[in-house]
């Protein structure tokens, strides 16, 4: 149920909130073709001792006890383990077909021992002679251009193997990194996916879509022992104090899980943030929004 709020200085009818929880691994072979990774190597790469072990064994609980912060998700919780990868000898045309056919934005380049050597992404394939998008320098630019740079551009535009177009400096992550760290890295480096390594060995890949799927799987936990009004009030008051620049101007009360929030806020954004904080406070059944914008003095 989606919460909606009317802007009013008069007491409003409580808005009920939901209170219950909604209840072929390709890898290149010697000739550069994309082929399934043998199960023995897959099991070693995944760190499994027995093939029959449940994927969820040893995982942390997704439903923490009331009053405790939820556990931080790590790369190991969401990463894709069956990774499409290529060798240095894989044809560029085959790589392009894999990217478009599987709707992925990059493929790691690995050695025969599974070590990560590089990565080929969509950006590595947009300057190609086949489609007439190779770099063209004017005559005067060629005079001052670095000869090695010219040669490198030519190889990347005309080379037919992965080794000709792959990026060697690869940004990687490890299985124990938190999703917050991964999101920061993706945002800062403007990357869509990151290889996951154990040492220098490729064990998976984590992408933006993996993070989105984690959001989709999230469910609000239900608690066996409902929080008391005093517990809810302390929790919500702490959230309001952290969000509002003037928390003393806001009054919060809770009765039988029904929260009443009144007072002055500096902006509509602050008001919305407080309402969202209330929605996320365990134990709250409904919200009365009686906040108003603080009048601005006119000089």
From TrEMBL:
Biased composition (Low complexity): 10-22
Pfam families in the record: BON, CBS
InterPro entries: BON_dom, CBS_dom, CBS_dom_sf, Diverse_CBS-Domain
Domain BON: 228-295
Keyword field: CBS domain
Domain of life of the native organism: Bacteria
Positions of region (Disordered): 1-71
Domain CBS: 79-135, 166-222
Full protein name: CBS domain-containing protein
